[in-house]
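Note to self: keep these together.
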Amino acid sequence: MKRIFTISGLVLLCFLFMNAAIAQSITVKGKVTDAKTGETLIGVSVAVTGTSTGTQTDVNGAFAINAPSNATLKVSYIGYATLQVAINGQSAIDIKLQPSTNELQQVVVIGYGTQRKLDNTGSVSSVKGVEISKQASTNALSSLQGKVSGVNITNNGSPGSSPQISIRGLGTIFGNVSPLFVVDGTWYSDISFLNNNDIENITILKDASSTAIYGVRAANGVVLVTTKHGVKGKPVITYNGYVGFQAATNQVKMANATEYATAVNELINYSNKGVAAADAKPPLFDNPASFGKGTDWYGQILRNALVTNHQVSLSGGSDKVTYNYSFGYLDQDGLVRNNNYQRYTLHFSNDFTPIKALKVGYSANGVFSTSKDIPGGIFHQLYSAAPTLPVFYKDGAYGDPADYGTGNGNNFNPEATLDFNNAKTITHRLTGDVHAELAILKNLKFRTSFGGDLGQVESRIYSPVYKATIAQTRTISNLDITHNETRNWIWENTLTYDYKVKDHKLTALVGYSAQNNRVYQNEAKADNVPYSSSGNLHTSFPDGANVTFIPTAADQLHTRTLSQFGRVNYSFKDKYLLNASIRRDGASQFYPNPYGWFPSIGGGWVITNEEFMKGQHIFDNLKLRGSWGKVGNSVVPINPSIQTVSADPYLTAIFGNPQVPTQGGSINTVVPPFIVWEKGVSSDFGIEGAFLNNRLSFEADYYNRRTEDAIFAIPILASVGTNSGSIIGNQATIQNRGFEFVLSWKDQPTKEFSYSFSGNIGVNTNKVLDVQSGKNPIYSGGNGIANGNLATRTVVGEPIGEFYGYKVTGVFQTVAEVAASNQKNAQPGDFIYQDMNGDHSIDSRDRTVLGNPNPKISYGFNTAFTYKQFDLAIDLQGVADVSVYNANIGFRFGNENFTQDFYDHRWHGAGTSTTYPSTNVGSNDNSKPNSFFVESGAYFRVRNAQLGYTLPGNSLRKYGVQRIRFYANAQNAINIFGYKGFTPEIGGGVGNLGIDSEVYPLFATYNFGVNVTF
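Structure:
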């Protein structure tokens, strides 16, 4: 019996030894490549399943990892299908990843982590950094234009400016309309500090299911940005640079000097009607033809502007440390002479793995920029200046409008305005975060991060003593300095638990967040400041200057937020998906009711993983999803429910004996008794699928987004006795409803040729559903509108900021027509307005809806081709069913110039025009907001076209060069639209959206560049 036990024990030990031998740790080495192109993939995540052990591939696609010989490796990379590879005792494994043909297997970035697209129940879109860096945009947001459905981006031509972005429509009136930007986990209000080449990936979260985890600031969507980090391997140096020029697109042609003189004489003749002959004004110009073409003011002041951009980066690392450093320089001239923007960017990131279970790191971005700014009103001057005015006289003096008697409307010489302009803005900004991640248990991770945003902006405007013309003169110099500082920080902690058993997979996350945001502004002015060089006007006033400090109390902001949040993701057999999250935010700006709760829930059904779909050959994947959630908007007026008292000298009263003057106070505003969160409540239903071996894929969404308790100011009766005439509070419900559709085709017929097509369209309808004040409208839109008129209205049942005014039905041709009309004070050549209410008179009650500045349709079409060493990418983009208001035409106070189009089509006698008025378009009645000024804002453009050539790698490696790619690029080269201005792509704040007045023109960019990797 003892022998039997001894033998059994030996056999058992033998089995244990064999099992231990099989399961002993070995070092597995290999390379990861693209399964189709054979290209090595850098930064691929290779992890041992069920452990915290992991690594990344180096610049050659190679990896090395210690793992049990019977373990399984999980290989994942954004844009590629995740792969599970069994080691089976092998020490060398080469892995080929399939590109994202199976869309559901892609890895996408979400709030506080990543997941397979298959597991996602929200509406999420991603754009790779390589697609962003291909465009000649100085801001990464501009590169997204036309690439993501439901995202509307409006650019501004001013150098260094950030574009406006809205996700699924305009959902607020008084608050911030921009989305939240999260860069490497830290929250920001913009991403202007980033160099395009430092971005690895941008993800747009559009529905409440995906954004609710950021509850406090997610009402307008969330933009997640992942910057580049180092990967294991030898040091790699890359250089990306281009040089080119920018030219104004569709430049507006103005009337020449002869035409202008003719038009002004007509205007004077028009004003003489009904005036006694003795009091009539004579024509201003005796012989219009004598002026010839005159001065082209746009040609004088605008130019083709040089732009150059350079970036150098260094990356690499070891098992313990990885790094990525970069330096960027941008020099962008503006279309206006002397206008220039220079930006220097730095990006530093390091990741450390001191022990297997702990990862720590940091990411930092620095930006320094200087801008030579344009003078205010310069574009109105270029539009209005008289072409009869020479830039300079023969003796070198500035041409003076007073010598021509054209009046105050254009009593300026734009050249003098530009020459004596001395305005400069300097920006310093440091952003970033430090973070650590600890694997507490096998499936339990704790992460902490602390990030911040430190910024300083200094603006300087110096007005010297000068005399250019009678009107353009200054006898006392003045220096105006504005100083802004931003001091923001955010501390976040999350605990993540991953659990998988058989067919069940669960990921649970809980977190805590604290934020502190401070903004300071100080402004001061001083007269009689001498000028010796730009140095003495930099950031402070000279010694002895008499400085006046300007109160800016409204710009001194300090807010704090405390948040707790949690999320659960669950899937069963990769068929049935559930996502639920909740966030509790407390924000100081809503004191004494600071807290809000923001829940969300989403579900998904992967139909192609069902047993009854196994035999079909139509769908490669098919998934249904739906979600509901509530998010918040905290960027609203601070403490609007706290009553303040203003003290003014005019409130002084005399009391007592002896009588003493005592300054009094006044309540100038009415405040609500309390205010609550402005909330976005939305639902989303989507379907995703693919056909034909994943070459053809589609995605469609329907959404209904409601902003509840929207905060804005509504009018109150003047009898209340306040100065503001309005009260701020939770007043309205706003709806954005629509659908989005994306269709993509990707194929590689041969090893040397591949191509892809992708089209997207978004349709959105904006409407105000309810206002507590009833149907009382809110009027706005006074930018560039003459005589104090307002061109937009927000009212129940209509979109935010719709254009509102009189409907033009024609132009009066004769005195008899006027006499028989409802406009007895009109004259031939004036607009005929429609009597909307049928009371046989024309007044404010006859105003009607003229157009909608909120785009209903936005679309994009993107293509890419590769053949051997050549590559070609073409991006098309446009919007439709949108209106713009051309305020430039009626923005007149005298004898401003006219466009060539207006001159050619103007009314100048009976029968000459039934659509365009006479030159008296700036009169009180003709300049009132009306349908003549409202035009279609639809456009179609070739957003970007780039042709590249990559030199064969074998011929370069002996020189230490891995890759060289040359390219030529054209951006906004072709623009098709009917609008009569520079561009119908016009931004603006809420209530002024789409009004073209003093808008910096957009431009086309043509550039040549090179990408080099050492």
